[in-house]
């Protein structure tokens, strides 16, 4: 069954300074491993990259902006905030434990999903639940019988230090989710 589309409306200003809609598009989930942005197949989750700011605070609030939909821009980017929808299909066999240098806001839009932390704890999230992920090592696991859709907003952070050692934690490599051409264009 194909994953649902997302309508994305982007606003801006016309030459006289009036607020206008500059883009109104239906976005389809993309395979995060494919540089061409083809639809996900099998157990691969669908990523719908909605927007990436240029900088924090954002500098791409006027004029042109780079559309990151269907692009391999990595999970988090230290040069701006990333907003995306992630569709976790059934059966969910990906379950990659990862850590990013960011604060992530994960909102369950539909379905049920379980967060697994490196201490072995598992927490179930249902529609409307929110997780504020602060650089912890975690995985998302869909153990239900239906797909789960989440909205993630990833804000880059300072390095996260291990309290036991005082050294920064290693981040999970995400080169397989990145395409340098798209990353450069989005900055």
Automatic annotation (TrEMBL):
<dbReference type="InterPro" id="IPR011051">
    <property type="entry name" value="RmlC_Cupin_sf"/>
</dbReference>
<dbReference type="InterPro" id="IPR013096">
    <property type="entry name" value="Cupin_2"/>
</dbReference>
<protein>
    <recommendedName>
        <fullName>Cupin type-2 domain-containing protein</fullName>
    </recommendedName>
</protein>
<dbReference type="InterPro" id="IPR014710">
    <property type="entry name" value="RmlC-like_jellyroll"/>
</dbReference>
<feature type="domain" description="Cupin type-2">
    <location>
        <begin position="96"/>
        <end position="153"/>
    </location>
</feature>
<dbReference type="InterPro" id="IPR047142">
    <property type="entry name" value="OryJ/VirC-like"/>
</dbReference>
<dbReference type="Pfam" id="PF07883">
    <property type="entry name" value="Cupin_2"/>
</dbReference>
């Amino acid at each position: 069954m194909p994953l649902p589309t997302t309508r994305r409306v982007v606003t801006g200003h016309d030459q006289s300074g009036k607020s206008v809609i500059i883009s109104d598009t239906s976005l389809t989930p993309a395979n995060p491993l494919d540089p061409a942005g083809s639809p996900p197949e099998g157990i691969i989750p669908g990523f719908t990259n909605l927007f990436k700011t240029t900088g924090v605070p954002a500098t791409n609030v006027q004029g042109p902006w780079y559309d990151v939909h269907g692009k391999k821009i990595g999970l988090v980017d230290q040069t701006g905030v990333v907003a995306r929808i992630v569709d976790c299909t059934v059966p969910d066999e990906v379950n990659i434990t990862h850590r990013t240098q960011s604060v992530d806001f994960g909102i369950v839009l539909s379905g049920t999903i379980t967060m697994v932390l490196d201490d072995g704890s598992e927490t179930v999230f249902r529609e409307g639940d929110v997780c504020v992920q602060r650089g912890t090592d975690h995985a998302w696991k869909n153990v239900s019988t239906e797909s789960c859709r989440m909205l993630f907003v990833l804000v880059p952070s300072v390095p996260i230090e291990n309290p036991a050692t005082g050294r920064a934690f290693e981040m999970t490599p995400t080169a397989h989710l990145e395409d340098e051409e798209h990353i450069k264009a989005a900055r």
